[in-house]
Amino acid sequence: MRSAWRWLLVITLSASGSQANANDWNMPVGVTDVSADIFGLHMTIFWICVVIGLVVFGAMFYSLFRYRHSKGAKAANFHEHTSVEVLWTAIPVLILVGMAVPATATLKNMYDSSDAELDVMITGQQWRWRYEYLGEDVAFTSNMSTPRTQVSGAETRGEHYLLEVDEPLVLPINRKVRFLMTSDDVIHSWWVPDLAVKQDTIPGFINENWVTINEPGIYRGQCTELCGINHGFMPVVVHAMEEDEFDGWLAERKEAAAEEAMGVDREWAMEELVARGQEIYQSICSSCHQAEGQGSPPAFPALANNEQLISDVDWHLNKVINGVSGAAMPAFRSTLNPVEIAAVVTYTRNAWGNDTGDVVQPSEVAELIAQ
Amino acid sequence: MSPKLPPQPHLQHSSTAVSDGQSQSHAAPPKGILRWLLTTNHKEIGSLYLIFSLTMFFVGGIFALVVRAELFQPGLQLVEPEFFNQMTTMHGLIMVFAAVMPAFTGLANWMIPLQIGAPDMALPRLNNFSFWLLPVAFALLLSTLFMPGGGPNFGWTFYAPLSTNYAPPSTSFFILALHMAGISSILGAINIIATILNMRAPGMRLMDMPLFVWTWLITAFLLIAVMPVLAAVITMMLMDINFGTSFFNAAGGGDPVLFQHLFWTFGHPEVYIMILPAFGIVSAIIPTFARKPLFGYASMVYATAAIAFLSFLVWAHHMFVVGMPLVAELFFMYTTMLIAVPTGVKVFNWVTTLFRGSISFESPMLFALAFVVLFTIGGFSGLMLAIAPADFQYHDTYFVVAHFHYVLVPGAIFAIMAGVYYWLPKWTGNYPNERLAQWHFWFSIIGVNLTFFPMHFAGLAGMPRRIPDYALQFADFNLLSSIGAFFFGASQLLFVLGIILCVRGGKKAPAKAWEGAEDLEWTVPSPAPLHTFETPPVFHRISH
């Protein structure tokens, strides 16, 4: 059945000269039991439609050809036939019942997120994902890493154009992972076709989904719910590892996180903070406030030469930590750590002609967040 | 108690068009623009609706072409994502509310009185008001594109909170425009129901009415039921935006998912509002050119009613991935699958009407036959989308875009075009140029399939909808779609040309313009005089 489907599409697509492989024009079978079940349902209902279509369109085109007025066809006058009408009402009902049974079983399985071995909190933000390994003290944000120069065409587009991130979500294979999904701003939707997981992330609500990945690999997807200007630039990348490799990765991340937490207490040099802040600014802030801090008013104010920002460091810190209610600016108090907030604020206060000379220390930020 | 008075003699209306521009006035009709501003004649208002709809079809079409031009190849070339989002949003809003819906209302205005033997619509002044709300509403909507922050950019489904807390300042004007369009629809629906229930020719029972009248009667009830829901949901948005309420704002105790439940309670019946009258048109055209009565008239009526009833019970199939409980997913999956049954009955009836007919292929018939095939393909993808587990993969991808464009473009819009070619001889007294119409048909059918068929594959391969730029593996499909879209768009100029030529002249049509046509509109002269059926016609029952 699979090969017939491919064959049909090769014909359809040969006109376009496509060199693509099967997954480029059909749903992927994927790498989980659920994704394979869904693929099976998809192909079953597809072939049911093909058969019904052949019968109905066959009868239609036969009639159109056989009973042409131009060939002197004389019209009959029948316009009712109760038993035929009952039959073609009943048969579709039976087909649908036959389809509903396996669909119901798959759906029940998809809704059973019990007995998970790892919980990952996924938070959608305009326009990035935040992943938090619950109970492990490991959390990070995942931003698109495709440079804007590729989008504009100034640079050749890479193989994974728009589907690559700075830090993928790392998961173990063969373990049941539960996702808890929410959003900080508008509704997003987290989708990886190979995992057959697509779930809206909704502000104020926590949705559940789960996955058990069968094969290691890198799986790519995108945000699928319109979420603003950069909706098209919000990829999802999952890196599925062997279990022991994953355990090693997680231990390493835990250690790094602990180290970073210690950095809050020490005195940081301005150069350190600016260097760190520039990275964070480019990956998180620049999608709205633009690379040179010029913003795109009225929705996204300029930061360069912003009088209020330059004159009032407390105001500046408050906006970054607590966000702006009713506007697009999120609160970063829980998504960035004190070191990161101090770094990005220091950078912003000393870049693009904002030569304030201010240095904000992580310890000050930690105190503000604690209040 | 006052004594019973003898009945007053009725004033006789003149039956000549020149002396009586308005049905209630003997004064000469105002000249120039005022004639059209003040008209209460169902045929003139019908023409206004149709011209408005055709204009908006091109406006919405140009927005679609901006979208397709940007998607012609990967990367951002022509527009910024912000403007791209405004274009997808405006394309949807204009096509749904300003092109498809007014086209059907225009056809209803023209044809329902003619098909039931009524002299006009029941409420002529209301009719004028319903129409003139529309140009105001959509001028306001289009003007938001020039306001600071731009026009609506949150998709035609305007999900909160993107459309409330995160929306551009022009959103309140968008809401006002939609309110006016909604009032127009409700008033139009009331008028249609009043006309059909009260003004049928003596002897015409409900089950004698042509299918176009039946489908519109049911559509009008759908409109009255769901337009107030739309009005409620956009009013709640207005309050959230301007008055600090939190209906859809989780931070204030509101619920963004509630927005979707309310929107689709309106939105799903709305989908059928845009297709049921199309069923009626096709059910008139196929018997005419097969020279054979419609098969299963009664089951057609019951199937339409069943679809309308079910349309209230399926809304959350648009929301399979919002995290509804399992039992809700199952309920909406089953009800949605059930819709395939009455829809199937309709398709089987059309095909059986063709069987053992005597079929000719004039342009209305070509569009109607294309409707049957391509609408059914859209129905098949709809059936696939109904399977909730599979919808987790299809949802919000180009597979969905392909699906609803198949039911709306070669579905609703082809049916409207079929109706226009079918009734143009009655409206103008001239046959449309058949050769031109055939070119229009073949270009349209190539264009529509080239545009929308590849979208199935792009969606299955993983391309989300509403993105201004895409990964490289989707490039081939998007290239094809964009070429198809420009081809389809350009070929619609043939449609306009055909209509203009037909209005100006052409082969003269007799009262019964098509050999196999049976309904009452074919008993009045072509072109239909401004006033028809001032004396109710004698209705002869055709045995169904």
TrEMBL record, chain A:
Q: Which GO terms describe its biological process?
A: ATP synthesis coupled electron transport
The record's GO molecular-function terms, alphabetically, read:
copper ion binding; cytochrome-c oxidase activity; heme binding; oxidoreductase activity
Q: Which residues cross the membrane?
A: 44-65, 86-105
Q: Give the SUPFAM superfamilies listed for this entry.
A: Cupredoxins, Cytochrome c, Cytochrome c oxidase subunit II-like, transmembrane region
What is the UniProt remark on how the cofactor binds and its stoichiometry?
Binds a copper A center.
- Entry keywords, A to Z: Copper, Electron transport, Heme, Iron, Membrane, Metal-binding, Oxidoreductase, Respiratory chain, Signal, Translocase, Transmembrane, Transmembrane helix, Transport
Q: Which EC class is this protein assigned?
A: translocase
Give the catalysed reaction(s), semicolon-separated. 4 Fe(II)-[cytochrome c] + O2 + 8 H(+)(in) = 4 Fe(III)-[cytochrome c] + 2 H2O + 4 H(+)(out)
Q: Which domain of life is it from?
A: Bacteria
User: What residues does the Cytochrome c domain cover?
Assistant: 272-352
Task: Answer whether the UniProt record assigns the keyword Translocase to this protein.
Answer: yes
Q: Sorted alphabetically, which Gene3D superfamilies does this protein's record hold?
A: 1.10.287.90, Cupredoxins - blue copper proteins, Cytochrome c-like domain
Protein's UniProt keywords contain NADP: no
Q: Where is the signal peptide?
A: 1-22
Q: Which cofactor does it need?
A: Cu cation
- The catalytic activity of this protein is classed by the Enzyme Commission as 7.1.1.9
Residues in domain Cytochrome oxidase subunit II transmembrane region profile?
A: 14-114
Instruction: Write down the Pfam families for this protein, in alphabetical order.
Output: COX2 (PF00116), COX2_TM (PF02790), Cytochrome_CBB3 (PF13442)
Membrane topology according to the record: Multi-pass membrane protein
Q: Which family does it belong to?
A: Belongs to the cytochrome c oxidase subunit 2 family.
Protein function = Subunits I and II form the functional core of the enzyme complex. Electrons originating in cytochrome c are transferred via heme a and Cu(A) to the binuclear center formed by heme a3 and Cu(B).
Q: What is this protein called?
A: Cytochrome c oxidase subunit 2
UniProtKB/TrEMBL annotation, chain B:
Subcellular location field? Cell membrane; Membrane
Which region ranges are annotated with the description Disordered?
1-27
GO biological process, any: respiratory electron transport chain
Where it mainly occurs, coarsely classed, is membrane
Q: Which SUPFAM superfamilies did the record assign?
A: Cytochrome c oxidase subunit I-like
The residues covered by the Cytochrome oxidase subunit I profile domain are 36-540
Which top-level enzyme class is recorded in the Swiss-Prot or TrEMBL entry?
translocase
E.C. code: 7.1.1.9
Q: Keyword set for this entry? A: Cell membrane, Copper, Electron transport, Heme, Iron, Membrane, Metal-binding, Oxidoreductase, Respiratory chain, Translocase, Transmembrane, Transmembrane helix, Transport
Do the record's keywords include Iron?
yes
Give residue spans, biased composition: Polar residues: 11-26
UniProt key word Zinc = no
Q: Which domain of life is it from?
A: Bacteria
By sequence similarity, the record places it as follows:
Belongs to the heme-copper respiratory oxidase family.
Function as written in the Swiss-Prot or TrEMBL entry: Cytochrome c oxidase is the component of the respiratory chain that catalyzes the reduction of oxygen to water. Subunits 1-3 form the functional core of the enzyme complex. CO I is the catalytic subunit of the enzyme. Electrons originating in cytochrome c are transferred via the copper A center of subunit 2 and heme A of subunit 1 to the bimetallic center formed by heme A3 and copper B.
What this protein is called in its record is: Cytochrome c oxidase subunit 1
Q: Which organism is it from?
A: Vreelandella maris
Species lineage, top-down? Bacteria, Pseudomonadati, Pseudomonadota, Gammaproteobacteria, Oceanospirillales
